[in-house]
Amino acid sequence: MASMPDEPFDETRDALTGLADQALARETIARWQQDWPADTIACPIQAMLITLGRIDTVNVAFGESAGDVALVEVAQRIKHFAGDELESSNAWLAARLNGGNFLLVARQQCSRERWQWLAEALADAIAVPIANPEGGASLRLWPRIALLRMTPADDPDSVLDRLSDLATRMRESNRRRIDWSTGEQARSGRSNQQLEADLLAAMDRNEIEILFQPQYALDDDRLIGAEALARWHHPVIGRIGGGTLFQIAERADQVAHLSRHIVTRAIEQAVHWPGALRLSVNITPADLAAENFATEFAQMAKAAGFPLNRITLEIIEQVLLADLDRVSRVLDQLKLFGIRIALDDFGAGFCNFRYLKVLPIDCIKLDRSMLEGVIEDDRDLAVIRAIVAMAEALGLKVVAEGVETEAQRELLRSEGCEYYQGFLRAQPMTPEDFLELVKR
């Protein structure tokens, strides 16, 4: 799960993407600097400007509606990436400045090497093809990212000016896709090939950390289970979240291996849970591409001693885009074993509602972005109500992700959502801490 950015909900936002706008970005940087203790080191602010060079081409070739879908999807990828990769105890903000220009700023101690590596990983995430809402060829955008570390002499205006000037030079000279405003290129500390080898070694040594995000019932706040998450503390790069972890695995052609490793370890931990607590685990396109996945998964869970009817497998839309007929067959097989299926990140981007009709889905998980502004904005609330009503009509349960306040929790309860997870009750925790939580 992602951490929540330090963004006040009553400020200005970009109408299309819901991110902060340029004015809020300036105000937030200024507030961070102003609130930072004067008797300590300078406020540690890192910034990156993400520019999408092909967005105008997308508008011309596919129409402005396709371009808008692409911008919304990129915004969601930036937010999810930041939530996964930036420390939850520190502040970050994502903004859309104009057109295809996005800003990500973070208030945290971060080496040049790590900030550059984060930019490289984010560029890879943004470059993943985006489903075309009009059908036909997928959309692919190639970002350039300008990097900056604020100095005591900088202010919000100088930050944006320096990043903009560098982005312009990068575009005009066709320079590398990642660059620093100082003109100095930092070493990322690890090549892709080295990272891929490190990942294989980390799996062999069980160094991929399994965390559990507790899940609760909205009617009485009882603990009902947890979602398994993965993190990797790399000795050079530092903390690597689940999304980027799978990007590295994909380059190494080890997605299925990593997925099985995470799921197996999660189930081995969940065996120790008392009562009827449920385990939710994520599965990938590589998993569902295997003809015998359902049988092998069931055999693995049974061998570990965890009941199949207490497992929920979460899939995302990208899984369904590959081969809907094949996915449907595999999901039908999983359902025969009593396993539940959840559609994850619902509302994060373009969603084909046909999936809800033709696939054996038991519940939908509202993406955390769906809750932003829902307390203050009647239109956001109307969207939540429409989704819940649709789910009820289809016999689907609704799980809300990213619940951060009592007001959000109470609203979701009153609107008919069944379950929730988020920092309001608990952050992702180690298996040992989850067992302690269960005993309370």
Description:
The protein has 440 residues and is α/β, with parallel strands linked by helices. 44% of the residues lie in helices and 19% in strands. It is built from 16 helices and 14 strands. It has helices at residues 22-35, 55-62, 64-85, 112-127, 156-173, 192-204, 242-251, 255-270, 285-288, 293-304, 317-322, 324-336, 354-358, 378-394, 406-415, 431-439; strands spanning 45-52, 91-98, 101-107, 143-149, 178-180, 208-217, 223-234, 238-240, 278-282, 311-315, 340-346, 363-366, 397-400, 419-420. Strand 6 (208-217) and strand 7 form a beta hairpin. Helix 3 (64-85) runs antiparallel to helix 4 (112-127). The radius of gyration is 22 Å and the shape is globular. The model is unreliable at 1-10 (pLDDT under 50).
Task: Reconstruct the topology from this structure.
Elements: H1 22-35, E1 45-52, H2 55-62, H3 64-85, E2 91-98, E3 101-107, H4 112-127, E4 143-149, H5 156-173, E5 178-180, H6 192-204, E6 208-217, E7 223-234, E8 238-240, H7 242-251, H8 255-270, E9 278-282, H9 285-288, H10 293-304, E10 311-315, H11 317-322, H12 324-336, E11 340-346, H13 354-358, E12 363-366, H14 378-394, E13 397-400, H15 406-415, E14 419-420, H16 431-439
Shape: globular
The arrangement of helices and strands along the chain is: HEHHEEHEHEHEEEHHEHHEHHEHEHEHEH
Beta-strand level of the residues, as a percent range?
A: 15-25%
Count of discrete alpha- or pi-helical segments spanning 4 or more residues: 16
For the biggest β-sheet, the strand order reads 6-7-9-10-11-12-13-14
Average pLDDT for all residues: 86
Write down the Rg: 22 Å
**Poorly predicted ranges:** 1-10
Alpha-carbon distance between the two ends? 23 Å
Largest sheet, in brief, is: 8 strands, mixed, barrel
Helix content: 40-55%
Which class do the helix and strand fractions yield?
alpha/beta
Give the total of beta strands: 14
